[in-house]
Design goal:
Elements lengths: L1 E5 L4 H12 L3 E6 L18 E5 L13 E4 L6 H6 L1 H22 L2 E7 L26 H21 L3 E6 L2 E2 L10 H11 L3 E4 L5 E3 L1 E2 H13 L6 E3 L4 E3 H12 L5 E4 L14 H7 L7 H19 L2
Parallel strand pairs: 1-2, 1-4, 2-3, 4-5, 5-6, 6-11, 7-10, 8-13
Antiparallel strand pairs: 9-12
Helix pairs in contact: 1-6, 3-4, 5-7, 5-9, 7-9
This protein binds nicotinamide-adenine-dinucleotide and uridine-5'-diphosphate.
The site of uridine-5'-diphosphate has 15 residues, from helix 5 and strand 8.
Length: about 325
């Protein structure tokens, strides 16, 4: 198949590109390199079945004979999506509109990478897909949260109105190899800080919770969703829930038990609890994550250890 991956030079997208190329598909990566890197696709660049197009999806793009579009392009870390919030909103609205138009023209199936952020600061726990969410539409996270909500709306309207085949996934916090060192998300921050001997920055009192999925589990779920009959929305994430303080202590133990913790103010609208209910994914996709937190963290830590060592040589 000819498959587009928008955001394919980014963290999750590049792992997906790997899996699709290994499966023998022809892959077109579309990315503006805002948080992505060409080095993430370097292993495929000489392969005739791989094409990289540097393109900003807020602008339309013409292509032919596309079978599937995995639509992942959008910065995922609060630090990056809040740096230019209007651009983030445009990427989610115009970018998704452009990709749905392309899917319509090519009769391609489109998988939208949505997010647990559509649940906002959730009032039910764990979060299942029937929950409509508790999102502040004027806050600093709304460019992303509301952007993803309108992207879901557009996808369902293209499906209802034009018969475009869509798949909607709500991804929960994911970590792994190829995260950016300056990504700003909690796992990369804590790991890089512990490896560099800098105090780990816990925001608030660390009692807020998250559930961390390893990237290989997530990518497998994306491919099952794309190639199955279930439209979604479907949660994909690891249901093991940890407080941020527990995460900091686990990373301390794995890297440097003497590492210090420093408490910083909690960012505005930071969700207090987050844990996916993955019953739908289990029932409809036969999917559940296999990699426990510490096993995934060990891989992420080994990656950053090597990266940091290579910088000092
Ligand atoms: P990432 O920032 O590593 O990757 C995003 C990619 O999209 C980058 O390569 C970036 O350059 C590209 N991009 C951004 N804006 C673009 C634009 N306007 N045009 C073209 N390319 C653009 O993030 P990620 O963690 O790999 O996330 C991928 C997707 O998964 C995102 O849509 C994100 O919202 C979603 N998601 C991720 C997580 C997570 O924990 N990583 C959680 C929920 C949802
Ligand atoms: N966080 C933290 N220290 C950091 C970065 C993040 O304590 O250095 C907290 C953040 O306030 C949030 C949680 O960790 O409560 C997850 O943050 P992240 O940005 O990784 O993801 P998101 O908030 O989008 O789930």
């Amino acid at each position: 198949m000819k498959i587009i991956v928008t955001g394919g030079a980014g963290f999750i997208g590049s792992h997906l590109v790997d899996r699709l190329m290994e499966s023998g598909h022809s892959v077109v990566c579309i990315d503006n390199l805002y948080t992505g890197r060409t080095s993430n696709n370097a292993q495929w660049i000489d392969n005739p079945d791989f094409q990289f197009i540097e393109h900003d999806i807020v602008n339309p793009i013409e292509m032919e004979n596309v079978d599937q579009i995995y639509h992942l392009a959008c910065p995922a870390s609060p630090v990056h999506y809040q740096a230019d919030p209007i651009k983030t909103a445009k990427t989610n609205f115009l970018g998704t509109l452009n990709m749905l138009e392309l899917a319509k023209k090519c009769s391609a199936r489109l998988l939208l990478a949505s997010t647990s952020e559509v649940y906002g600061d959730p009032l039910i726990h764990p979060q299942n897909e029937d929950y409509w969410g508790n999102v502040n539409c004027t806050g600093i996270r709304s460019c992303y949260d509301e952007g993803k909500r309108i992207a879901e709306t557009l996808s369902f309207d293209y499906h209802r109105h034009f018969g475009v085949e869509v798949r909607i996934v709500r991804i929960f916090n994911t970590h792994g190899v190829r995260m950016l060192e300056n990504d700003g998300r909690v796992v990369s921050n804590f790991v890089v800080q512990a490896l560099k001997g800098i105090p780990l920055t816990v925001y608030g009192d660390g009692s807020q919770t998250r559930s961390f999925c390893y990237v290989s589990d997530l990518v497998q779920g994306l491919m099952l969703l794309m190639n199955g009959n279930y439209i979604g929305p479907v949660n994909l994430g690891n249901p093991e829930e940890y407080t941020i303080l527990q995460l900091a202590q686990t990373i301390q133990r794995l890297i440097d038990p003497t590492a210090e913790l420093v408490f910083k103010p909690l960012p505005q609208d930071d969700p207090q609890r987050r844990q996916p209910d993955i019953s739908r994914a289990k029932f409809n996709l036969g999917w559940e994550p296999k990699v426990p937190l510490e096993e995934g963290l060990s891989k992420t830590i080994a990656y950053f250890r090597e990266l940091i060592a290579s910088q000092s040589t």
